[in-house]
User: Fold these one by one.
Assistant:
Number 1:
Amino acid sequence: MTNVVDLCSNLIRIDSTNTGDLDTSAGERKAAEYVATVLSEAGIEPAVLESAPGRTNLVARIPGRDSSHGALLVHGHLDVVPADASEWSVHPFSGEVKDGYVWGRGAVDMKDFDAMVLATVTGWQAEGYVPPRDIVLAFTADEEAGGDYGAHFLVQRHAELFEGCTEAIGEVGGFSVTVAPDLRLYLIQTAEKGIDWLRLHAAGRPGHGSFVNDDNAVTALCEAVARLGRTEFPVVVTPTVQAFLEHVSEVLGVELDPDPEKAIAKLGPIARIVGATIRNTANPTRLSAGYKDNVIPGKATATIDCRTLPGFADQFQEQLRAVVGDQIEIETVHHQAALETTFDGPLVDAMAAALRAEDAGARPVPYMLSGGTDAKAFATLGMRCFGFSPLQLPADLDFAALFHGIDERVPAEGLEFGVRVLDRLLRSS
Ligand SMILES: [Zn+2]
């Protein structure tokens, strides 16, 4: 078995920055070639699928003992977000191992899990191990820019590779949050908010900047954007958040505040992870108008990053219209539906058992991710999708801040723990 720390470090050293621009995204092919080499040395031959030059995806199937059972998809993306080396205490693409951590861009998002998957399945070859059911591996490009060249390309153009997959595991879940010395919550993702990137357009009367103008597009747009940015949408407790609160209340042995907002606010570091999962959100991210200091433009646009709760996409559109008013045109630039599955069934039981076997203080709980992952694409093929890339983390590590953050790093022991849990899970499910 290749060491998971070396695998993670080697993957980080391949700069696979996804800028969202085809011309400047370079390293995904190299990363995929590295993964393909590791797999083929273990007798697993992946299909190599490029959606555009250099935008490389890999899919491989490990036949199980009983291929008539639904297959399990295990997926990880190979791209990373950009990193500015001047801000880091080590070079972000050094993959340096120091102070018990593997450092670099992608250490937690998500070359850690890619490395765990490789360490686990290549370890099976030496003993000739065959898993109970088919396992499909997918290593994708472009997750960090929405996945059009990655997971969405795969499901749209190569759905046959996922034949029979009934469930999937990937990011972001299975990590520990320490609540007492011998008690760790492991947050397993069973839901993801939906994504709506919207453009608001305001139109007005163009003219000279020195004239009186009561129909200024910039003013109208700014009013709408400011109202929206300050709007707190109503709290809605979806089944996943309800289950999360019940589990946490039971584990901590405390009666949680009946107001879900207050209950979550009292959960310390977890609040940052789940705080945005009790309401729809709309954050203005870009503004654009005008071409000259003394010319009033006839139009102005703003981009709003909206995240919707499962089952509330339509209601959100109504809420949005009520806030911005009738004069603003709303254009949907990008839409991905929210996901939600239940925290039950043999796979969930196997995840919980694998965690407990490796950590007697483990308490698995379901949660909703406020962001989006490749699961959005795979769910369109009818799979139940879970965020489960198991990691045991030190109590004082601010895990959420490491995602896309400076000095992203992952504990080496956490990686090794992850391999043991993943190996147990894949052998038992
Ligand atoms: Zn990620």
Note: Residues 77, 109-110, 143, 171 surround zinc ion (CB under 6 Å).
Number 2:
Amino acid sequence: MLVTGIEILQDAHKNNYAVGAFNVNNMEIVQAIIEAAEETNSPVILQASQGGLKYAGVEYIAALGKLAAEKAKVPVALHLDHGTDFDQVMLCIRHGFSSVMIDGSRFELEGNIAITKKVIEVAHAVGVSVEAELGKIGGTEDDIVVDERDATFTDPKEAKKFVEETNVDYLAIAVGTAHGVYKGEPKLDFERIKTIKEMVNIPLVLHGSSGVPKEAIEKAVSLGINKINIDTDLRMAFSNAIKDFLKENPDNIDPRKILGPAKEAMKEIIKEKMELFGSAGRA
Ligand SMILES: [Zn+2]
């Protein structure tokens, strides 16, 4: 069933586990995520970035997501990842997304608060939950590029003020992860996660979580991370499976034969994540 993001994340917050939010761009990815969620009995968040919406079209993504949620035996939320534009966020709400992110991290604190409040006023009126971002997460997410030097960690005092003033449902924090493929091993600021959690007491979101070591993920979850975004790991599983298949079967031209193994490869990764995050068995 389709549920709001906060319905899923409030339980995760209360019971100290995290739910995976996986980026979708086509039918095979949606199916891989839903099958993994059903097989592990896990709640799940399907999310689409602005780039994903541009690629597939908001109508296609919304229809795929809602159909998948309707048919699923587990709770599913449909979420907009990194909405930077008010109109785009409204479009997603109109098309039935049950959760949206307004990323105002390019603004100073007051500007970020202002745009977040504006989105929340509308979203909450129609029962859609909202994620915001405070601090700047480094790396490249579609057309959003944040240079490593411009990435800034979330200030706990600002986080408290931000949450009090906006009434945001869940907050993405910058604590050392980055979007894309890591060059070295990411170093997470665990003390900062703990402090922010104590000060805001709402579900916290970790972006750029592909490639973060298992132990670091477990610790981050134990300290209060409740939503974990995964995109790069799925991309790698998808493309590696296709490369392998075509290497062994260079003359195969059947899209089903080519994409089938990619779907299975993604599903295996997603199931592992669900076990690691602690959402398995929570649906
Ligand atoms: Zn992100």
Note: The pocket of zinc ion is lined by residues 82, 137, 141, 179, 207, 229 (CB under 6 Å).
